[in-house]
Automatic annotation (TrEMBL):
GO biological process, one term: carboxylic acid metabolic process
UniProt record similarity statement: Belongs to the group II decarboxylase family.
GO annotations of cellular component type: cytoplasm
Protein name: Dopa decarboxylase
Record-linked InterPro entries: Aromatic_deC, PyrdxlP-dep_de-COase, PyrdxlP-dep_Trfase, PyrdxlP-dep_Trfase_major
SUPFAM superfamilies assigned to the protein according to its UniProt record, in alphabetical order: PLP-dependent transferases
Top-level taxon: Eukaryota
Gene Ontology MF: a single term: carboxy-lyase activity
Names of the cofactor(s): pyridoxal 5'-phosphate
Keywords from the UniProt entry: Decarboxylase, Lyase, Pyridoxal phosphate
Length: 217
């Protein structure tokens, strides 16, 4: 297919009336399917993205669509909210995270499911900004007043582009990508990170966060 191919196959305006299921499936097969790229079935993607359409996931989507509950607050759907709490604590235990990361633990820790990886990156960096500024106001951290003009986020050159995009959205002026080397399995080295931090501090910038990468993207 070529760019803008779909506009030539579909009407210029939305249908004024409903269409038959036969027509819908026909449009799917002739217009949509030829323009889809399946990242999981093609070996050319080299497992760049993990499989995300397992049979349990499909059944889970079926239940979610069928129940159609609003889970933005406990009172809106108690079971939905509490299931998220319990399952994410399972995940924290599976990853052997310290207990302070658990929802069912006294303290500020906890987990929440975000809508996408990009959304999660924005939320995490926004939380880091708020914490950094709160610490400065409380006198817990000395040095320059942290503002979005002098904050810097560190990551390796293997980190997904969502971090750079999150920095742009949040107005974080500086994103320092640290070069990795094949002889070290493209892993971020502590010495390289320390050197990058020292260089940024020498320029008058305030370190905000270090983003690590596990696996592929």
């Amino acid at each position: 297919v070529k760019p803008n191919y779909l506009s030539e196959l579909l009407p210029a305006s939305a249908p004024a009336s409903s269409e038959s299921w036969t027509k819908i499936i026909s449009d799917l097969n002739t217009a949509i399917m030829p323009g889809l790229t399946n990242w999981e079935s093609s070996s050319k993607f080299f497992a760049y993205f993990k499989p995300h359409a397992s049979y349990p996931a499909v059944l889970g989507e079926l239940l979610c669509a069928g129940l159609n509950v609003m889970g933005f607050d406990w009172i809106a759907s108690p079971a939905c909210t509490e299931l998220e709490v319990v399952v994410l604590d399972w995940l924290a235990k599976f990853l052997t995270l310290p207990s302070k990361f658990y929802n069912l633990h006294e303290g500020p820790g906890g987990s929440v499911i975000q809508g996408s990886a990009g959304e999660a990156a924005i939320v995490v960096l926004l939380a880091a900004i708020i914490r950094k500024q709160s610490e400065h106001r409380a006198g817990k951290k000395l040095g320059r007043n942290p503002s979005r003009d002098n904050l810097v986020v560190f990551s390796s050159d293997q980190t997904h582009s969502i971090i750079a995009k999150a920095c742009m959205i949040l107005g974080i002026a500086h994103h320092h990508q640290i070069k990795t080397r094949p002889g070290q399995y493209y892993a971020l080295q502590a010495a390289d990170l320390q050197e990058a931090i020292d260089d940024e501090i020498a320029l008058g910038r305030v370190p905000l966060a270090v983003v690590i990468t596990t696996g592929t993207t």
